[in-house]
Amino acid sequence: MKLEEIAKKMCAKGKGILAADESTGTIAKRFKSINVENTEKNRLLFRQTLFSSEAMKKYIGGVILFDETIKQKTTLGPSIPELISNNNAIPGIKVDKGAKPLAGSPEETVTEGLDGLRERLKEYYDLGARFTKWRAVYKIGSSFPSIQSIKSNAHALARYASLVQEAKMVPIVEPEVLMDGSHDIDKCYQVTTDVLNEVYNELEIHKVDLKGTVLKPNMIIPGSNSAQKSSCEEIAKKTLDCLKKNVPGEVTGIAFLSGGQSEIESSKNLNEINKINNTNFLITFSYGRGLQASALKEFGKDQKNQDNVQKAFDHRAKMNGLSSRGEWSEILEKEVAA
Ligand code: 13P
Prior knowledge:
- With 338 residues, the protein is α/β, with parallel strands linked by helices.
- It has one domain (3-337): Aldolase class I (TIM Barrel, Alpha-Beta Barrel).
- The protein has helices at 3-10, 24-33, 40-51, 55-59, 67-70, 80-86, 117-126, 147-166, 185-205, 232-246, 263-275, 289-301, 306-323, 330-337, and strands spanning 16-19, 60-65, 90-94, 99-102, 105-111, 131-138, 170-177, 214-215, 253-256, 282-287.
- The strands form two sheets. It has an eight-stranded parallel β-barrel, surrounded by seven helices. It has a two-stranded antiparallel sheet with strand order 4-5.
- The radius of gyration is 19 Å and the shape is globular.
- The structure holds 1,3-dihydroxyacetonephosphate.
- 1,3-dihydroxyacetonephosphate binds at residues 19, 135, 174, 257-259, 287-290.
């Protein structure tokens, strides 16, 4: 498949991406919150339960995996990437090695993982991956993000994206401006503008074909400790405005991260964005917590009750599928949940 076709399939109308690529450390935090032991067996059980769910076929275009998961065999027979492909979704893989303190500005981070990446990409392709993810992280503070952080992360994202396309996979380019802090919505807009400008500047220098990419940005929202509360209409309008001004029109798909918003907020805001979307971008979700929080809670109650975990996941996937068409509503949310 051509890169542009892969990107279109990942973000097809009514579908989005399941970010199930929590590193062993992050999944440890999630399992701790539900009192489940963080073992390889439990990680496999939770993930294969999601990936064999009904919602996969209807609402999920791609799944982002972690290194351990892409190499696992399910207890149902097929390997994890086979299970995902059998459900008509595309397997993807997180390839960065995490955000590390940035020398010179150690309160900020730069994402590492370029060394040996060409060789790892080949291995992941052979395991069935057709897209990848690399996440750069920017924090907002009185003197953050620094120019150093904006430039170094953009450079790494571009070198990553270029290598991924060489390996015939679609790079998800994820520059995440964190929600943490008491900044207002306009500060988020301005920082995201600066970050996106530098990212696309570097992608151009590194000859990345934008049609074969998916952008995974944050929405434009006030900081989580801000006194300001913005309506979903304001969030949608400012998010779309920021993307229209700063993302080149050739980009095929834009799949938001949920970034700490609640499940309902993530659906509601995406829905509002799609209601007013007058761009050519396919705009959808690439949620981790926004898709998994309720399912994880059910898994905490009873790990053997696959039906309840899948019911919770199916509902969230369906709601976000509707949001990707701008057809979600509070009434549907309650009707289906009842
Ligand atoms: P959240 O939706 O939980 O922010 O996770 C998405 C993700 O993949 C972050 O890199």
